[in-house]
Design a protein that fits this description.
six-stranded antiparallel sheet, 6 helices, TATA-Binding Protein, about 350 residues, Elongation Factor Tu (Ef-tu), domain 3, 19 strands, single chain, FNR_nucleotide-bd, Rossmann fold
């Protein structure tokens, strides 16, 4: 298969500042990359992104096996550009294997088929769509759901332009986008289950789930994510937002491994019945007893750290600040290496 490529130029006055901030970000989140004084090359799902020093700033390159991978890489590169050069640096003008299309290759329009109440705070929506085989991935379980504004029967979706950018719908018709985890996927029947946390505060995902009825439309793009490494001992912890991912891990981690999991919900009535194999042990934690979000989860992981950690993997998802602190402790205090942990901030307290 012939690789697809595209490139763009980013004009910068301080290339070194961009480069140092990019490398610090990749190090913090354990993203695989190679670097020297002239280039940073990042290994990403489906291909490689390269940031090379040029006369006017940076030469940006994306290389992938297929159109969908190239589109994903361009989106990731533009995310890094927005983080470290500012939104004003966008849009970029790409050259090479770029095509305009009605939708992105990784996008599917989905409809609500069924609704199930799992607990007072979690509602499951079964969504149906066509050609979902791309989402059947052993490690990439996350998707971006696009929630159109209420009352729009025929939503408009973002689409790629001939310059490699994104043409967004008008503001009043533009969907809100949030990340969710696929709980169950049935490619043959064209169904996915997504579990929604019904936040007290308004939000696009929870609001969509609350008012959902069969036939309602949303969009789904992906998949995204990173898998866990092989280990003999796993420590898993997360709040309601992480329960779908932890539940899938409990179902798929090898029976030869020791698996300990901690799940945090508001109160005992919010606990879910989860299938638990003999090699897995789960414990529930409750915020109603005065604990700050995610802090008792991080404490449980730290308390359970074994003396021998060569064959250990830690998976954690929750509040962003708590996640960041735990990630630093795992590296600095407990000496976990890259590839031994995946610690993610799913949400931030100030903007929950």
């Amino acid at each position: 298969m012939t690789a697809q490529r595209c490139d763009a130029t980013l004009t910068l006055t301080d290339v070194n500042d961009f480069r140092l901030r990019l490398i610090a970000f990749l190090d913090e989140y354990d993203v695989a990359y190679r670097s020297d004084e002239r280039q940073v090359a990042i290994d990403l799902p489906g291909g490689e992104a390269r940031f090379s020093v040029s006369r006017v700033g940076l030469h940006l390159e994306a290389e992938a096996d297929a159109r969908d991978g190239l589109e994903t890489l361009r989106g990731i590169i533009e995310h890094y550009v927005a983080l470290f050069a500012g939104e004003n640096a966008l849009p970029l003008h790409w050259h090479g294997d770029v095509v305009a299309a009605p939708t992105f290759a990784n996008f599917r329009e989905m409809r609500v088929a069924r609704i199930e109440e799992l607990s007072p705070s979690i509602r499951r929506l079964t969504l149906t769509g066509e050609n979902l085989a791309r989402f059947d991935h052993p490690e990439e379980w996350h998707v971006r759901l696009h929630f159109p504004p209420p009352g729009i029967d025929r939503p408009q979706w973002p689409r790629p332009t001939a310059e490699g950018g994104t043409q967004w719908p008008p503001e009043d018709r533009r969907a809100e986008i949030r990340y969710y985890t696929i709980r169950r996927l049935d490619v043959a029947s064209g169904e996915v289950d997504i579990d929604f946390l019904l936040h007290e505060a308004p939000g696009p995902g929870g609001d969509f789930a609350r008012r959902a009825k069969p036939g309602d439309i949303c969009g789904m793009a992906g998949p995204y994510g990173r898998g866990v490494a092989e280990a003999s001992h796993y420590l898993l912890a997360g709040d309601e937002t992480a329960i779908p991912a932890i539940a899938r891990l409990l179902e798929t981690l090898p029976a030869s491994a020791q698996v300990e999991a901690w799940l945090e919900v508001e109160s005992p009535v919010d606990e879910l019945e989860l299938p638990v194999a003999d090699h897995c042990r789960i414990s529930w934690r409750h915020r109603c007893r005065g604990h700050a979000p995610s802090e008792q989860l991080a404490a449980a992981v730290v308390e359970a750290m074994p003396d021998t950690r060569d064959d250990l993997f830690v998976w954690f998802a929750g509040e962003a600040d708590v996640s960041q602190c735990l990630r630093k402790r795992l590296k600095q205090e407990f000496g976990l290496q890259k590839g031994q942990h995946l610690v993610t901030g799913y949400w931030k307290r100030e903007s929950a």
